[in-house]
Design brief:
Layout lengths: L3 E2 L5 E2 L1 E8 L3 H13 L4 E4 L8 H4 L20 H6 L9 H14 L6 E2 L4 E7 L4 E6 L4 E9 L22 E4 L13 E5 L3 H11 L4 E6 L6 E2 L7 H9 L1 H10 L18 H14 L3 H4 L9 H18 L3 H6 L13 E2 L2 H4 L5 E5 L5 E5 L2 E4 L3 E3 L2 E4 L7 H5 L2 E3 L6 H4 L18 E3 L10 H22 L4 E3 L1 H16 L29 H13 L5 E3 L1
Parallel strand pairs: 3-4, 3-8, 4-5, 6-19, 8-20, 9-18, 10-11, 10-18, 11-14, 12-13
Antiparallel strand pairs: 1-2, 6-7, 7-8, 15-16, 16-17, 21-22
Helix pairs in contact: 1-15, 15-17
Bound molecules: 3-acetylpyridine adenine dinucleotide (N01).
3-acetylpyridine adenine dinucleotide (N01) binds next to helix 5.
């Protein structure tokens, strides 16, 4: 181990060509590409004791992928696809971890990963053009490239500041950091929050607790998952059509092998419209959001047809009139990230489940024995915070990142995150962000592969041409950041507040965090930028 005193004042304990932060889907694939395909010396640091990233931490009851497993996986290796099959349509959290364990073993990735180690900061040294990356275990690694594979949601759990939480005599947990061995049997449980995590956890907790009280601030749309097991015939078909599936997904709007039907919702008869929604509803899952009419995500009148269809479904399921009305969302479907559930609305027909509308009757305090709203005290043994995350920027700000001239990332992003193409940001040379802010989202494993491949090709070219650093030109970053905002404003996203614009966190700068364009065209654009010699980037 070398020990060097650097320009930045850190005491260096080791070197690498690249440091990767995180060992989830993004970090594992980046490690494979950079180490095995480019031959770089790579160190990966992971805060968890195992691989998985967000899937390592999110172990709440009912945690399950809400995308179809056959495309929620890597596509880079045909052999990997041949030797892995999910048990059913939507893999459970533990199954996804098993998959990522399998990937780590199959490609011998663990020897380059240091587990249980949090990257606490990194500083760019302008004299050496290298990053000095520090960890909570006392390491300071000098590396030319810093790859953030930190995801959008891990490590940045949001627990609202509710008076009295420290006085609570029961147990409380956040869905994003669920410990092993929690037993809810026979307990009075309160769940705060009805986003994707709450909606998945609520039906499962209702089956375990003696009583469940759901504290809902905003009613949500949710699509039935229609989870089912996947048989041999299904997998034979997936393998037979492997190329077709991935080709479609890569060219699609959302990174999935489904497209809208090319029609506008109001150009067809009501009969055809309803038949379209009914058929997709019966299939379930994210396909319902992507596979109907082309204009439901940006045209309010078109959207009204699908939103009303879904509101009626809630009315059909929920028996109690007051509960039913409280569960009807007022914002348009797709103004927030779609949620996929198993028996969510039916859970409110159970005798042991109560819905409390905390918009009408706000939470006032947590007491030693439960939770108090403006109207009533609710005695509880366990409180579950399904209250989300300081998303996207939170995991970055959790580290002390300093670029050129010691400039801090949270200063550069104080009015909202900025990037060029979601990949790099000004004054932070060679800090490649995998699915960073301003990147396209969609089917995340595929977005991750798109980014990692671009980054690996870029590094290969830099090395071949003797360039030491890459960073965006300030005007390219400004323009892209504006494009990201404008694209979101053209959709229905501004009609609801959520983590997509930072408004879920009190005091956070309001800015759209993702590019909400067309996935296939975004991929084409990235490829063109690379082919044209990286216009918009400064290579030195
Ligand atoms: O978090 P959220 P999440 N008082 O921010 C409520 C991914 N994910 O963990 O809507 C009362 O969506 C808040 O209320 P409101 C997925 O990308 C994926 O559920 O702001 N309530 C909301 O109901 C997802 O989008 C999967 O009014 C408060 C909830 O807490 C993302 O993670 C599974 C409150 C937060 O919802 C985040 O989902 C799970 C307060 N003070 C998650 N503060 C799968 O793939 C917040 N809330 C399966």
């Amino acid at each position: 181990m070398t020990t060097t005193h650097s320009q930045t004042g850190h005491t260096q304990t080791g070197t690498a060509d690249a440091v990767i932060v995180g060992a989830g889907f993004a970090g594992l694939y980046a490690l494979k590409r950079l180490r095995d395909d480019l031959g770089l010396d790579v160190r990966t640091f992971e805060a968890g004791q195992g691989v998985g990233g967000v899937w390592y931490w999110n172990r709440y009851p009912g945690a399950r992928c809400d995308s179809d497993g056959f495309v929620y996986c890597y596509s880079f290796s045909r052999e990997l696809l041949q030797d892995w099959r999910w048990k059913g349509k939507y893999p459970e959290q533990a199954e996804i971890r098993a998959y990522l364990d399998h990937v780590a073993d199959r490609f011998d990735l663990r020897r380059s990963i240091t587990f249980g180690t949090l990257v606490t900061g990194a500083e760019f040294d302008e004299e050496t053009n290298r990053w000095l990356v520090t960890t909570d275990q006392g390491e300071t690694i000098s590396a030319q490239f810093l790859i953030t594979a930190i995801g959008h949601l891990a490590i940045s759990k949001y627990v609202p500041d509710i008076e009295g939480l420290e006085t609570f005599q029961g147990e409380w947990f956040h869905t994003g950091g669920w410990p092993d061995g929690v037993d809810l049997a026979g307990k009075r449980v309160g769940v705060i929050g009805t986003g994707s995590s709450g909606v998945q956890a609520i039906p499962v907790i209702a089956g375990q607790a003696s009583h469940l009280t759901v504290f809902q601030r905003t009613a949500q749309f949710s699509i039935p998952a229609r989870h089912e097991t996947a048989d041999e015939q299904f997998w034979t078909e997936v393998r037979r059509t492997y190329d077709e599936i991935w080709d479609k997904a890569r060219r699609s709007a959302g990174g999935f092998p489904w497209e809208h039907n090319g029609k506008r919702a109001l150009e067809v008869s009501e009969e055809e419209r309803l038949a379209t929604y009914e058929s997709l509803w019966a299939q379930g899952g994210i396909r319902f959001a992507l596979g109907s009419f082309q204009d439901i995500s940006y045209d309010l009148a078109a959207n009204q047809t699908v939103s009303d269809f879904m509101r009626q479904k809630i009315r059909d399921i929920v028996h109690d009139p007051a509960t039913r009305e409280a569960l009807i969302p007022s914002h348009p479907f797709m103004a927030r990230r779609p949620i996929v559930d198993t028996d969510y609305f039916a859970t409110f027909n159970r005798d042991n489940v109560t819905l409390v509308d905390v918009k009408k009757s706000p939470i006032q305090a947590i007491t030693p024995t439960g939770l108090r709203t403006a109207e009533q005290d609710y005695p509880l043994d366990v409180i579950v915070f399904a209250t989300g995350f300081d998303a996207v920027t939170g995991p970055f700000f959790n580290m002390d990142l300093r670029g050129r001239g010691g400039r801090r990332l949270n200063n550069h992003w104080r009015n909202g995150p900025k990037s060029y193409l979601g990949l790099l940001t000004v004054d932070f040379p060679n800090m490649f962000m995998i699915t960073g802010p301003g990147s396209m989202v969609g089917n995340l494993p595929l977005t991750i592969e798109t980014h990692v491949d671009w980054i690996a090709d870029c590094i290969r070219e830099m090395r071949a041409s003797g360039k030491e650093t890459i960073e965006p030109a300030p005007d390219a970053e400004a323009q892209w950041t504006q494009t990201v905002q404008r694209q979101a404003e053209r959709s229905l996203i501004p009609m609801a507040s959520s983590w997509y614009d930072g408004s879920n966190i009190p005091g956070k700068a309001k800015a759209y965090v993702f590019f909400l364009g067309h996935f296939g065209r975004y991929r084409d654009h990235l490829r063109e930028v690379a082919e044209q010699g990286h216009p918009g980037f400064q290579l030195r």
